[in-house]
Write a structure and sequence with these properties.
It is a single chain. The chain is of the alpha/beta class and 153 residues long. It has one domain: Dehydroquinase, class II (Rossmann fold). 38% of the residues lie in helices and 18% in strands. It has five helices and five strands. Strands 2-1-3-4-5 form a five-stranded parallel β-sheet, with helices on both faces. Helix 2 runs parallel beside helix 5 and helix 3 packs parallel to helix 4. The longest helix has 19 residues. The mean pLDDT is 95. The structure holds 1,3,4-trihydroxy-5-OXO-cyclohexanecarboxylic acid (DQA). The site of 1,3,4-trihydroxy-5-OXO-cyclohexanecarboxylic acid has 10 residues, from loops.
Length: 153
């Protein structure tokens, strides 16, 4: 069976995980999260490319690069979730299956975090489970891709 190729995109300030507001985002570093995700990906016969990017244009370019290279995208767009039409347009432009994740429950927080520009172009969203949001998001994306690719199973 061919491995699924998945792009994992972490948006702005997520390089500070472990240091940044640990009461909201937990104590794990981004390296810890990526390592745990890669272990799970191997069990799911998938290969992850993980990138953390602080600028909007760099995220747009990374999404473009996924075209014809990746099977799906797992994205935590950080604060750009709530502001970026450009990221949303890039995601709908490449037309790859997308799962949106957030460490915190964005709906329990400030009202400016309640709207996501990514959500309407994603298969679904997982929010509020800390590092488990990423794991659950990866499992959901892989499951979707496997059924999309092998409808008989
Ligand atoms: C976040 C939630 C966003 O509102 C915030 O700007 C982030 C992180 C999360 O993972 O909970 O940077 O996406």
């Amino acid at each position: 069976m061919q491995q699924l190729q998945i792009l994992v995109l972490h948006g702005p300030n997520l390089n500070l995980l472990g240091v940044r507001e640990p009461s909201i985002y937990g104590g794990l570093s981004l390296d810890n999260i990526n390592a745990a995700l890669k272990t799970r990906a191997t069990e799911l016969h998938s290969f992850l490319e993980c990138q953390q990017l602080n600028s909007e244009g760099a995220i747009v370019e990374a999404i473009h690069t996924a075209l014809n290279q990746k099977d799906g995208i797992l994205i935590n767009a950080g604060a750009y979730t709530h502001t970026s039409i450009a990221i949303r347009d890039a995601l709908s432009g490449v037309n790859l299956p997308v799962v949106e994740v957030h460490l915190s429950n964005i709906y329990k927080r400030e009202s400016f975090r309640h709207h996501s520009y990514v959500a309407p172009v994603a298969i679904g969203q997982i929010s509020g489970f800390g590092v488990d949001s990423y794991r659950l998001g990866l499992e959901a994306l892989v499951n979707y891709l496997k059924h999309q690719k092998e409808p008989s199973q």
